[in-house]
Amino acid sequence: MSAPLLELDAVSKKFRRPMSLGDRIAAKLGGTVVPHEVRAVDGVSLSVSHSETVGLVGESGCGKSTLGRIAAGILPPTSGVARLDGKPVMSEGRHPHKLTTRVQTVFQDPFASLNPRRRIGDAIAEGPVAHGLVDRAGSRAYVADQLSRVGLDPSYASRFPHQFSGGQRQRIAIARALAMQPDLLICDEPVASLDVSIQAQVLNLFLELRQSLNLTAIFISHDLGVVRHVSDRVAIMYLGRIVEIGPTADIYAAPKHPYTQALLSSVPRLNRRHEGRRAFKPIAGELPSPTSPPTGCHFHPRCPLAEAQCRSVAPELRPMGLTHWAACHLAVKT
Amino acid sequence: MTAALEVRGLKTHFFTRDGVVKAVDGVDLTIAPGRVLGLVGESGSGKSVTGLSVLGLIDPPGRIVEGSVRLEGQELVGLNREAARRVRGRKIAMIFQDPMMTLNPVLRVDTQMFMALRAHEPVPKDAARQQALAALGRVGLPDPEQCLTAYPHQLSGGMRQRVAIAIALLHSPSVIVADEPTTALDVSIQGQILQEMQRLSADTGVALVWITHDLAVVSSLAHDIAVMYAGRIVEQGPAEDVLAAPRHPYTRGLLDSVPGEAQPGKKLAQIPGSIPALVDLPPGCAFRARCSRADSACETMPEIADLGGARAVRCFHPLEGR
Q1: Segment A244-261, tens digit of pLDDT
Q2: Is B130 part of any domain?
Q3: Which of A23, A125, A136, B205 has the fewest CB neighbours in a 10 Å radius?
Q4: CA B250, CA A239: separation in Å to the nearest integer?
Q5: How many domains are contained in chain B?
């Protein structure tokens, strides 16, 4: 097997609230101050091969977006390193910055990621011109190509974001990311705010472009159906850790981690060969706060199988199959 | 048996500077006690405005221009403010998508629940407290006592939505209109709420109108489905029948565009185009520009036609049943 395109090596990201005035005074006077700290991502390793799509699934606060941003070189990891083709995505030092243009991101809300006062043609051309992928004279034709590739009329280049519908705006966001000619695309909930019929159009566009441009992608979503449709492999995250990862078909057919099992059974499914209304078997309890995650396995307070060791020892990812891994003390190979 | 809620020929229009927006343009719905009706549609289909119209919550420039809403036989359209206020919250209640918008952020949960109780009857404080606790217990909140003294921001999203549901249940209404109540929640919490609602409607006999864009939610929760498009119901019937064999091309298109059932990695069947603007909608079937079966007949608006088996469809060229 060839070397992976993207490699996340034990990356962690802590967010710390700035100390309040009172805390700072207490620290100056020699008192002890407990820092408010969120471990958004906790020692995650993940590698993504060329032309592979990996789906990242989890509920809010599980760290999937943070992990995506580390991979995209938007956030520097607190520890660990993200590498693209063996080279770090971000520089080291006090003010780390992104070193590559080969990773680009598509965000959930194109209303927030597109400047409302810029014509979309300018928004798309800005990056490629700045990085010398195209000269200013050729930028108009370049933008026209990018727009027609995502199924928009090239004449739209002179319009503003508010003149487009949600689905069209997401196409623009995709065009802008692809204009940088990336090898890796990070898609952070790209279809979450769209209507079902528009969502299908954007997903189809993604599938088409992925094939024609031979793209590698990380597809972040809370929607298990969407992820199943586009991903080769799926990673399930819970409170900053990957709890299970494996080929899409295996994860959906035979989930090993109790959280994955519960997640899959609590999601309402469109059941067209109908047995009538379904009884739900939801996961009990609330999502714990990421500021004070439970000890041991983060899932143990909600897990029906939890034992004594689950409360004290955090489980490592263990192989469940050739390429299928789960972080559970009790999961067994089949 | 009288229907819990009967809507006939409801038309709600908004009179804006750009023209008349016919957000709801002739909607008929009937729902029996203890049943769950899934009102499905994409954004701009008029499903939320239908819900708000039922409760008489339409503000200018919007107005119910025609139609009737009967709650257990009582006509609600045209009630004066005071009479409407006496019905709302007592006989019919609403749950919204975002409980942070409906709960008052500066009042404790107990204060808000007492206000809701006393809006309709004088209740001594002790009794009010007992009723509030009972309502919170019914929606599966683990610690009702503690929840009563909390402010909304101290609760999680799922707990806030449970409080909103508990408030809706306080007066044991006969109908609850729920507008996308689980859309903002995480899947594991959504599963819990759906389970509670399924149980509550069976236990208390409350009729639920569940407004959502999510067909998967409807397929596991609702007895009946009504699909809306551009202000009108295009198809309705028992949930399993509609999902298994949709007759309207739009329903079919919606179902086919849901990922998860389709072969992974293959192109999803997609509906071309997007929902038309509701200002000055051209005459005829609103879906015809996106429909592969449309022909010249579709330039006039089809009536909703009874198909038997409690099913109805608004289409000149319906798909074959099974």
Answers
A1: 999 999 999 999 999 999
A2: no
A3: A136
A4: 40
A5: 1
